[in-house]
DNA sequence: CAAGTCAGTTTACAAATGTCAAATTTTAAA
DNA sequence: TTTAAAATTTGACATTTGTAAACTGACTTG
């Protein structure tokens, strides 16, 4: 169905596509001029160019520097002591068209991710719609010797993307080694969770998460329709209790309070995922968030020093400064 | 005059340009839709997008893999034992429009160059119209810890580009440290050349050329209108003598015979440039050539193992195989 | 304060691009 | 050899994009 998923290209066709693309995008010829040269119809040139784009032979990239070098990003950077802040802007109310806002944030986050990741890095990836958006907008770029690991166990939900998807897609786009976590994000009892964690393949992966160079994750709020509830992972009672106990956000299925410290409340003991202290150990911590409903949660994470790099939409950025 | 030479961008404008560019190239909105969102006229959006392209905020790149993965490149690679071959094709007779062919080859060569160069490399750059074409098509991409050195002394000529230009431009585009060679490519006498070579700053640079990781150069033929003659560096008598002695091409102002071995003929002893043995020492040797009049010369260089990577136009590629 | 500059606007038009359906050619398979 | 499938072409058309010229208002600057 999706042409772009077909990696193999008939070898000589690729050369043709590339050179046509260079004539169009590089030399600046019109499609008609190229058609005349190739002795084909203009429609064919249109199709060749589309194919070249779809196959990723032609890549259109936006420089990440400009997304972080502006006054809003600078203010935010200084207010929370961050290394870098990337701002996404759709120039309209992010709440009215959340899908579009998410895609734009995904593109900005993808740019940020490539900006930050370095050769040889061991990278941890969480999941959620925001991280999924990043993975979907990530272009196919080789980054050498990178290992990508899944930070949180898997889970089923029609709303939450299959957790491995984010990790697998990111790994495959940058040609990295991929380590998934073969366990549910949430076990039915604490005892069972403990057994899972001791299982060799799982414990090896959890150990791997303790020595990462970079993590990429998002944050959920603790409203009743938060992902963790929608995915059936936390009950409404548990959420209410957590709210009462002062929890302000959810990272890796774990609650944090207003200061960014972990709250050990149910169902934390049933979770199979990286610890928040594991995240802290990574030198580069990219937090990607979209939407003003995450304001409190994001502020908490930033106060707790859980992020070194932040990627947000402009409305949330402004709210974070006040 | 040239807006793109102005590196500094009003910081908030850059963010606007980037996000508009993402909406257009990423989200795929039309200019009118973007104009409606930004509450500006469509003409303004056109201008913003043009500005973003001119400033390099939007970069359109063609994947190098496709340029080397085709049957012609494979044949050439196997015939001469090369690591990689990149083919440029303008789909018309390269001789009738040499400028266009050169630009296309420059783009392909720029892609190849970025494909080949690695972090920490010490790179040597020769000069000539072909290498200049490469330098002019090189996008602005940061490559860490690279040193770029000039392989051949400088020279004046209206036809040959100022030799430092190639080196300087390439270094500046990839953010590399740049080492120029502050000497003429040709001294008036052999004794003077020897004095030049002993001059501390020059001898230091020549030493530097003995430990390169990568070299990028082109090759000239030995016709009467070759660059070296046009630049007044070699007399017609010298060229005729060289031809009679079996010289087939000119690299770094030095003659090579049909087997790619150096011919020590005048004015070789007056030349101030890297030795051919210095080129050989570099692990990655990119030869960039355009035009069938270089057929014999290129074949000689390849036979002599002077190149590991080759970048040529398709007509020359076909000729090289027969 | 007047002149100049700058970003942006409007209007209008020309050029280029994307898309469709039907006809034709090419290619591969039976 | 025939036939079916795939690729390409044609011609027509709507949409999108690029460009020019004249104009507006805000903001320098001598």
Describe the structure.
Two copies of one chain form a homodimer. The first copy, chain A, is of the alpha/beta class and 322 residues long. The first copy, chain A, has two domains: 11-54, Winged helix-like DNA-binding domain superfamily/Winged helix DNA-binding domain (Arc Repressor Mutant, subunit A, Orthogonal Bundle); 64-321, Rossmann fold, CATH 3.40.50. Chain A is 45% helix and 15% strand. Chain A has 15 helices and eleven strands. The first copy, chain A, has helices at 11-27, 31-38, 42-54, 65-68, 71-80, 98-116, 129-137, 163-173, 190-198, 200-208, 227-230, 236-244, 276-281, 295-303, 314-321, and strands at 58-62, 84-88, 122-125, 147-150, 177-179, 214-217, 247-251, 254-257, 262-263, 284-289, 309-313. In chain A, the strands form two sheets. The first copy, chain A, has a seven-stranded parallel beta sheet, sandwiched between helices. In chain A, strands 7-8-9 form a three-stranded antiparallel beta sheet. In chain A, strand 3 (122-125), helix 7 and strand 4 form a beta-alpha-beta unit. In chain A, helix 5 packs across helix 15. The longest helix of chain A is centred in the N-terminal third of the chain and has 19 residues, at 98-116. Residues 1-9 of chain A have low confidence and may be disordered. The interface between A and B is large, with 50 and 50 residues.
């Amino acid at each position: 169905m999706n042409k772009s998923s077909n990696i193999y290209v008939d070898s000589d066709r690729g050369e043709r596509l590339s050179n046509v693309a260079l004539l169009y995008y590089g030399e600046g010829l019109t499609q008609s001029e190229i058609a005349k040269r190739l002795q084909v119809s203009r429609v064919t040139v249109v199709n060749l160019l589309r194919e070249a784009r779809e196959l990723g032979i032609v890549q259109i990239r936006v420089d990440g520097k400009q997304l972080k070098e502006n006054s809003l990003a600078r203010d935010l950077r200084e207010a929370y002591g961050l290394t870098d802040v990337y701002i996404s802007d759709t120039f309209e109310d992010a709440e009215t068209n959340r899908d579009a806002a998410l895609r734009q944030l995904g593109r900005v986050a993808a740019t940020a991710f490539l900006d930050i990741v370095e050769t040889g890095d061991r990278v941890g990836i969480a999941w959620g719609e925001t991280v999924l958006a990043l993975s979907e907008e990530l272009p196919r770029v080789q980054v050498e010797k990178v290992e990508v690991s899944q930070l949180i166990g898997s889970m089923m939900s029609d709303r939450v993307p299959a957790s491995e998807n984010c990790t697998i897609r990111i790994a495959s786009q940058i040609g990295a080694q991929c380590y998934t976590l073969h366990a549910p994000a949430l076990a039915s009892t604490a005892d069972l969770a403990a057994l899972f964690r001791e299982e060799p393949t799982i414990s090896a992966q959890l150990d791997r998460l303790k020595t990462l160079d970079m993590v990429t994750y998002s944050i959920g709020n603790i409203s009743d329709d938060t992902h963790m509830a929608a995915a059936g992972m936390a009950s409404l009672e548990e959420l209410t209790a957590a709210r009462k106990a002062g929890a302000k956000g959810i990272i890796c299925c774990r609650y944090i309070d207003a200061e960014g410290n972990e709250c050990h409340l149910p169902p934390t003991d049933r979770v199979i995922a990286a610890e928040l202290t594991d995240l802290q150990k990574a030198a580069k911590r990219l937090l990607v968030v979209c939407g003003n409903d995450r304001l409190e949660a994001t502020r908490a994470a930033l106060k707790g020093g859980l992020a070194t790099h932040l990627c947000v939409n402009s409305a949330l950025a402004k709210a974070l400064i006040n």
